[in-house]
Amino acid sequence: MALHTVTLIGNPEPIPVGKIVCMGRNYVAHIEELNNLRPERPMFFIKPATALSPIDQPIRIPPYSSQARHELELAALIGKTLTCANAEDVYPAIDGYAVALDVTLQDVQEEVKKKGHPWEIAKGFDGSCPISPFVPASQVPRPQELMLRMRVNGELRHNDSTRLMIWKIPELVADASRYFTLEPGDIVLTGTPAGVGPLEPGDALEMEIEQVGIYHSTVVA
Ligand code: ZN
To answer: 12 CA to middle of ligand 1, Å?
Structure first.
């Protein structure tokens, strides 16, 4: 089933999603592991709503890739319209937080980067954004102090705190709203910590963000 809506726990109706604004290179150690330069300003890209899938559904690697990578990220659900917002306007405009995966086709991304082409086919394909139900923001009082952990077949990959973000949630969401008006139902992915690694068919995944949830999934070809 295609999922163009997300669930906010306690909300009776599913929430239609507009767009998913993602942040690249927001944790220092992850920038180093990919040999990227630390950007002077936040770097954004967008996934379409068709990228969403429930986080407990198997992840399908598209046939045009043979090298997928996981990036575990804290997702924020926008509840109020933000345009050229100030950082102090951001927390009151966030309705909830979720566990998200930014599934990236590494081989495809390297190819398009080399050619100077856009990233969408490497990061915005169907199913490239597995996402959990959102926990109301009121139950996540300190989103900037949460541990993110990911295990693949029991092996610990990501294991870092949202404290390590270069741009904190208020700054990065405010900055994103300078380029893209954020509307209720939009989602912001806040970047991956270090520990990215391959996803292979048959892998068993455990994805956890403190206070937000722990979820399991698998990878299929
Ligand atoms: Zn990412």
So the answer is: 30
Tally: H helices and E strands in the chain: 5, 18
Structural domains of the chain sorted by starting position, each given as residue range(s) with its CATH number in brackets: 5-220 (3.90.850.10)
- CA 156 to centroid of ligand 1, rounded, Å: 18
The pLDDT tens digits of the residues spanning 9-20 come to: 999 999 999 999
Tens digits of residue pLDDT in 180-213:
999 999 999 999 999 999 999 999 999 999 999 9
Task: Give residues whose Cβ lies within 5 Å of ion ligand 1.
Answer: 71, 102, 192
Kind of pairing between the strands at 52-54 and 197-199:
unpaired
Calculate the alpha carbon distances from 44 to 22, 40, 125 in Å: 6, 12, 17
pLDDT tens per residue across span 68-102: 999 999 999 999 999 999 999 999 999 999 999 99
Q: From ligand 1's centre to the CA of 70, what distance in Å?
A: 8
Q: Residue 159 phi/psi, 5° resolution?
A: -160, 75
Distance of CA 68 from the midpoint of ligand 1 (Å): 12
Residue 46 contacts residue 21 (beta carbons within 8 Å): yes
Q: Are 179 and 44 in contact (CB under 8 A)?
A: yes
Determine if the pTM surpasses 0.90: yes
